[in-house]
Write a structure and sequence with these properties.
Strand content: 25-35%
Radius of gyration: 16 Å
Largest sheet: 5 strands, mixed
Helix content: 10-25%
CATH superfamily of the largest domain: 2,3-Dihydroxybiphenyl 1,2-Dioxygenase, domain 1
Number of domains: 2
Shape: globular
Length: 132
């Protein structure tokens, strides 16, 4: 088995695509007016409108309702990423902080309130976990 993607359902796809293009520096591929993907070497962030899940009726995911998942991106230098993001209208949860498990982490929210973590392994143990 190989992890492929995480899909975020949103009520405003254009806003979410613009946000994730800005924070990742990657261009999303728009497949339809209701679906886009930002691909990385490790996996894909899929962004989709509520129309893509309407057939699920009451069981459909609800946009802007997440309180349990953090979307994480490993970056080369979390402090540099923070400085690049500061000028934008982003809700930061914390400034770059070194966590007890050895990652330097920056938490912020996307336009729907989903938590996003940019992190950089900084201790030898943390760096070893991400060796290829």
């Amino acid at each position: 088995m190989q992890f492929a993607s995480i899909r975020v359902i949103t009520g405003n796809l254009d806003r979410m695509v613009e946000f994730y293009e800005r924070v990742t520096g990657e261009t999303a591929k728009r497949f339809t007016d209701d679906f886009a993907e930002i691909r990385t070497a490790a996996g894909t962030l899929a962004l989709a409108s509520v129309r893509t899940v309407q057939a699920l009726a009451a069981q459909a995911p609800r946009p802007a309702a997440n309180r349990s998942v953090i979307i994480e991106f490993r970056v080369d230098d979390v402090d540099r990423e923070y400085e690049k993001l500061r000028p934008f209208d982003i809700e930061f949860v914390n400034e770059p902080t070194t966590q007890p498990w050895g990652n330097r982490s920056l938490l912020f929210r996307d336009p729907d309130g989903n938590m996003v973590n940019f992190f950089t392994p900084v201790t030898p143990e943390a760096m070893k976990r991400f060796e290829q």
